[in-house]
Amino acid sequence: MTLDELRLRSYPSFTRVVLETSGPVTYRVELTGPKEARIRLVGLVGDARAEALGDGLIDQVRLERAGADAIIRVTFDGTPGEMRTSALTDPPRLVLDFHRPVTEAIGERSERAAPLRMIVLDAGHGGHDPGATGPTGLAEKDLVLDVTRRVAKLVEAELGVRILLTRSDDTFVTLRDRTSIANRERADLFVSIHGNAHRQIDSAGVETYFLSSEATDSGARQAAAVENSVVQLENPAGGRGRADIVKAILWDLAQSEFQAESSRLAEIVQDSMTRSLRIPNRGVKQAGFYVLGGAAMPAILVEIGFVTNPREERRLRESRYRDEIARAILAGLAEYKRYWDQRMRTTADRAR
Question: What is the domain range of residue 196?
Fold first, then answer.
């Protein structure tokens, strides 16, 4: 097992260390303290090295030899908060996220210590961008607009939350403008609704994404690439649309502060969808979706089913099934709202 690449990235609320390896790596956290963290990588081959960072949280990351194993030693500049580890595939990666203390994050977002009041619902595609097309001609843009409208009516009626739609008819809205609407209105959540597509027509189920610089797997990376290709439709002549793609490394900077909350929202909505609809659970995944990148709030992208699967396309055409999808999304948002409101009450009490 060899180390192919070591990457470090700093964000407002956490610092990420990524080890890309030639195969799945077994690891063991041996120490997490105020001065350093130490993680053993079993059987990993790689030359000793040191990467200086000095971002106010992490001073240095060192790879050291320990017999047949390797040790990642992370030394801290400041006081570390929670450390989160995740193993990703295709290519194999170990991702270490070192978060800044929660008290700092609460202080930064104290103005949000209020009940959840506004959600922006984003129906994917539209206008001259049809999105995916099913075997019998079902257009993703029409499907998701109808489902999004149904979700909006249910949420406003049953949760008393204000809903804004990025589009309410068959119009084209740029990816940048979709989150700009949410930011301008200071929305609390951003939920983008899409239909899925795959060249393997038997692909089935629902999945939910939140933004990350590290895609969960090749499928997640492919899904993001398909959705991000809409940028080319925004300016067919090239120029500005292409420049936006070049800035891909910046997509998740705004979202990084909300990554943990986006992940929680994604898990809750995904669980609700799979429980209610009784279809395959493809899980919660991370990928670099452009449409989520500029959102200054928790943001997720829900893939409600495969338009390209003949069986799922038939169900997705049914009004009753669309109602079931809308109610499943409503149930997830209701559960998250209960969590949000309770957390905000606790935060407000602490601030008194």
Answer: 110-348
